[in-house]
């Protein structure tokens, strides 16, 4: 009887070599990657994608000391991929400003699209988001109208020195304005100091702070005070009730007001800018910070000075001294608690080679 021939020990039988050999031959003959032979479809570039951002004219209406809008940013996100583009914001023509961003190579699939308007401090103050499906060989387009981001109200309650603090179980904020709200936060344990954050629609509000006893009875409330909540910004309140006989006096420690009357004198021969400002009325200002943003650069801290200063000379050879251009200058006040005001904005117009020796710009942004 004929018996099949066995392969020597430790060596594979020829029949087991057949499948890998045939697979390799198919790859060579087809010019395909193994993923295609196995039926897996790799991703393919399928751009371009065009994203238009529409910024309403209301975004340009900045108040005193408020940082002006400066930069538009678009982000495309899919899985672990991130594509980002930024550009300087242009003034609106009519009711809105529109800018279009084009991404040339974008993989097929569903992408998350986010648009943001950043102010000169780098905070996103207007935003919008959507989804976009990219198909090979087609141009995908989407338009986003940006809306004001919620404002964050950060409230800190400090019961140090309040002789009835044992009765207090919660604190609250009453707001009347673009929307009416009663925001309440329980006191954690017996902490003398605690804080809570709440997001609200931006706008001007009448605000009242309240202390509560167990069961919801009002222990103490102060009079209404006006406060402005800015889109995408944090407004910090610190309230320290204190005793005085039968009268309880509440006090709000506000973020310091921004400096005023920012001026900028350009000294091209020294490659320097002389920035001056008027001190704010706050008595607890500890110093000032001066920020710069060149025409083709990002915002950066240029100098910190003490409270007694009202001007500073900034030497920076990297600014566009030959070609000229507008340099953004922002001055902020910092109080003893480390709280920083909004920017007091200004612009320094650096002259070109044939321009005047110096320029003075007052800062309305």
TrEMBL record:
PROSITE patterns associated with the record: FN3 (PS50853), PROKAR_LIPOPROTEIN (PS51257)
Alphabetized SUPFAM superfamilies for the sequence: Fibronectin type III (SSF49265)
Fibronectin type-III domain segment(s): 258-353
Superkingdom classification of source: Bacteria
InterPro entries linked to this entry: FN3_dom, FN3_sf, Ig-like_fold
Protein name: Fibronectin type III domain-containing protein
